[in-house]
Amino acid sequence: MVNGKKMYYSISEVCSMTSLEPHVLRYWESEFPQLHPKKNRAGNRAYREKDIEIIRYIKFLLYDEKFTIPGARKKITDMKDGEWEQLSLNLSQPAAKKPVSIEELRQELSDVLDLIKT
Q1: Which of 24, 47, 57, 99 could be cross-linked to 51 through a Cys-Cys bond (beta carbons 3.0 to 4.6 Å apart)?
Q2: What CATH number does domain 11-117 carry, 3.40.50, 1.10.1660, 3.90.1690, 1.10.3230?
Q3: Are 52 and 16 contacting, i.e. CB atoms less than 8 angstroms apart?
């Protein structure tokens, strides 16, 4: 372990971390040359932090940004080293909260006022 983090993660651990199924990760390995986890003597995949960052970015491009696989592959291929560093910082931050509508805000304030009055 380095700084409390493991050096390598199993496919099941990565699935838990990313909410993806193992077959998805194996398929992405065949589609994205940047994603190539090492394999141990038994042939099991051993993912590094860098592999997990790539997986999270692929997931973001495909699921959130609605890229096609060829589009996501091109986007990743065109990235420079500095962009990878910035990306890892962005992906490690919690996702932004959904904006609240005026109606929801009014209702919440009304509820707070009701609590104060009682």
Answers
A1: 47
A2: 1.10.1660
A3: no
Q: Which residues touch 1 (CB under 8 Å, ≥6 apart)?
A: 7
Measured CA to CA, the distance from residue 12 to residue 75 in angstroms comes to 27
| Coil, helix or strand at residue 2 | strand
Non-local (6+) Cβ contacts of 2 within 8 A are none
pLDDT by 10s per residue, the chain, length 118: 556 678 899 999 999 999 999 999 999 999 999 899 999 899 999 999 989 989 999 999 999 999 999 999 999 888 876 666 666 555 555 555 556 678 877 888 887 787 788 6
Cβ(111)–Cβ(118) below 8 Å? no
Distance CA 37, CA 7 (A): 12
Question: In angstroms, how far apart are the furthest CA atoms of the chain?
Answer: 68
